[in-house]
């Protein structure tokens, strides 16, 4: 019998954070939209074209913050100076790649502080079941707020390894869709990529799972994009990991 819906050879589970463990993907999407719409409105006036959910899925979701800014701006034919890593994230901060990215992060933190963070209970149960079966666990996220978010939902101790935006910067690891952060998690767990399962809700995460030659890629369809998840490399797509718990 498969363990938790996984092939028998899988020994480790590598989980994305936003949209997989916590319901923060919608918070991030709202912050991206608020930041980009404010920038575009200031740049183009009343005739600006708003940032859309499709823009989020295609150009931003799952990418490190600065890469998301560059990707979306390129889709609109806009070029901005890179600026500095610590460019102010205030509404009147500089229009640079890092300035816009820091503004987005300021908005995310404000929303998390005022609205709180909620976990997907099906995922937390699944992670606990995986650990009970002896599977290794890691969290892999582009977020620099990963540890604080996990602590807020009392889930930090469920993961042996954390590769997040802070660790990626320290190790100079490129973000998704490159597989390097997931590969780093597999390395730190001392499990070959082919014996690891990746859990992602973003298309960039699917691409990372496929290009990293991981043993199994589970797509979480939170927004009705199951076909796209499969096209980008998912071996299986579910709406919630609770659907796989029955296999334990």
Q: How would you describe what is shown here?
A:
With 248 residues, the chain is of the alpha/beta class. The protein has two domains: 12-24 and 118-245, Rossmann fold (3-Layer(aba) Sandwich), CATH 3.40.50; 26-115, DNA polymerase, domain 1 (Orthogonal Bundle), CATH 1.10.150. It contains eleven helices and six strands. The chain has helices at residues 25-44, 53-60, 65-75, 97-115, 121-132, 146-152, 165-171, 180-189, 203-211, 226-231, 242-245, and strands spanning 12-15, 136-140, 161-163, 196-200, 216-220, 236-238. The protein has a six-stranded parallel sheet. α1 packs across α4, α2 (53-60) crosses α3 and α3 (65-75) packs across α4. The N and C termini lie close together (8 Å). The model has no long low-confidence stretch (mean pLDDT 93). Belongs to the HAD-like hydrolase superfamily. CbbY/CbbZ/Gph/YieH family. Residues 79-101 are annotated as: Disordered. GO terms for molecular function: hydrolase activity.
Distance between the termini: 8 Å
CATH architecture assignment name of the largest domain: 3-Layer(aba) Sandwich
Give the averaged pLDDT, no decimals: 93
CATH superfamily placement of the largest domain: HAD superfamily/HAD-like
CATH topology of the largest domain: Rossmann fold
Question: What is the compact description of this entry?
Answer:
The protein has 248 residues and is of the alpha/beta class. The chain is built from eleven helices and six strands. It has a six-stranded parallel β-sheet.
